[in-house]
Specification:
The chain is mainly alpha-helical. It has eleven helices and no strands. This is Olfactory receptor 2B11-like.
């Protein structure tokens, strides 16, 4: 691992993110479940699905990363790598599509308030959640099938070049087959495009509605503008790992070639050390999202904060 003196600090950082993610998500989930007013609302049913995806990401990624850092070596290749590959793909797609559905749900609530209770029901929301997971798992399973069928079948090294068996690391480890990479990029690009269009449409219409509501009173629409900008910033945070992967792809390819061609000492001093920095940044962002999601889409809600204070008062009493 390049920059080995930084390993203890990385272990502490990842341990803190893990603990914070578990506490924030479980605390938010407990608050929703304990409140009879919120547990059945479509908005919070989607929020619970997002929390489940966050917890699955945290318990799958964090222990493996911390163990690799504690052992001062990259991830060993085995059955658990395939599990990490599937979970990584499925949770990323699930989180992105769930947040998009939450934006569409808010759009229907704000712009079609009278038809909202008839259109958005618990049964329909649960069907949407089932479709989200079927879609996410299908993409991850198809990607893994392409890796197994098109990748190298023999002379596979026992150790990967990453701290986690995320898709790019796995594909490089089995010989960088083109089919799974092309499939992931096409599926990811189409999903991302649809999600961005849905977000843009939802928040633009909600902003227009809020603007029209205050025009007769000659008031500024600062609150609506701040809300839209805030959630756009949170969407950018969700997409930041994808930007890091695009930037680091070429650097990781250079690092792998040097690792196979030269000695370990030569590799540590060259571009692979820079690629390792991008790789660690990606892993940090994968664990930062589960920490922020329950705060942004759960505890930021005024209703949920009131329920939390009521629950705390009841506990104290």
């Amino acid at each position: 691992i390049p920059h080995e003196p930084a390993v203890p600090a990385l272990i502490c950082g990842f341990a803190f993110l893990t603990l914070f993610s578990l506490l924030a998500n479980l605390f938010t989930l407990y608050t929703i479940e304990r409140s009879e007013d919120f547990s059945w609302l479509p908005r919070f049913i989607l929020c619970k699905n997002l929390i489940f995806s966050n917890l699955l990401q945290t318990v799958t990624f964090a222990p493996a990363i911390i163990h690799s850092l504690a052992q001062h070596q990259t991830m060993a290749f085995g059955i658990y790598c395939y599990f990490q590959y599937v979970v990584s793909e499925a949770t990323i797609f699930s989180s992105l599509t769930t947040i998009t559905c939450m934006a569409l749900e808010r759009y229907l609530f704000v712009c079609y308030a009278l038809q909202y209770t008839v259109t958005v029901t618990r049964e329909r929301v649960r069907k949407v959640i089932v479709l989200i997971w079927l879609y996410s798992i299908a993409i991850s399973v198809v990607s893994l099938s392409l890796v197994l069928s098109k990748g190298r079948q023999e002379n596979i090294p026992d150790v990967t070049v990453g701290l986690l068996c995320e898709p790019d690391i796995m594909e490089q480890h089995v010989g960088s087959p083109r089919a799974p990479a092309i499939f992931r990029k096409v599926a990811g690009s189409l999903t991302l495009l649809l999600c961005l269009l849905a977000h843009a449409f939802s928040y633009f219409r909600m902003y227009r509605n809020a603007s029209n509501a205050v025009v007769p009173f000659n008031e500024s629409n600062t609150a609506a503008r701040r809300t839209v900008l805030f959630y756009c910033g949170m969407l950018f945070l969700q997409l930041l790992p994808l930007l890091i992967k695009v930037t680091s792809g070429a650097l990781w390819l250079t690092g792998v070639i040097e690792l196979s061609a030269g000695s370990r000492e030569d590799c540590l001093a060259g571009p692979s050390a820079t690629a390792a920095g991008f790789h660690v940044s990606l892993l940090v962002m994968l664990l930062v999202k589960p920490c922020i999601n329950p705060l942004v889409y759960g505890l930021r809600s005024v209703e949920l904060r009131k329920a939390l204070l009521k629950l705390l008062r009841w506990r104290v009493g």
